[in-house]
Amino acid sequence: MSRVKRIVLDVLKPHHPNVLEFARTIAEQDSGYRVNITVEAVDEKTETITVTLEGTDIQFEQIGEAIAHMSGSIHSIDEVTVVGESQS
């Protein structure tokens, strides 16, 4: 079984919650998650952000649900690191 160790997402979100609250909510999905967010663009109502998430076994569906719950939408998966069971 393979495990997702790192994923980079292009996300569109409203101004609220702010990026700190957004990062905390994603990080709270698992105690081992490390989240980095870079704001790429800001307009009147939204922010385009790059979310970099690292962990031992990232559950993408759970992350997608957390982002959707905060009214964000994933535009693309820009990068991913997956390792096989024998490498983890």
TrEMBL record:
Superkingdom of the source species: Bacteria
Pfam families documented for this protein: DUF211 (PF02680)
Listed Gene3D superfamilies: MTH889-like domain
InterPro entries registered for this protein in UniProt: DUF211, MTH889-like_dom_sf
Name of the protein in question: DUF211 domain-containing protein
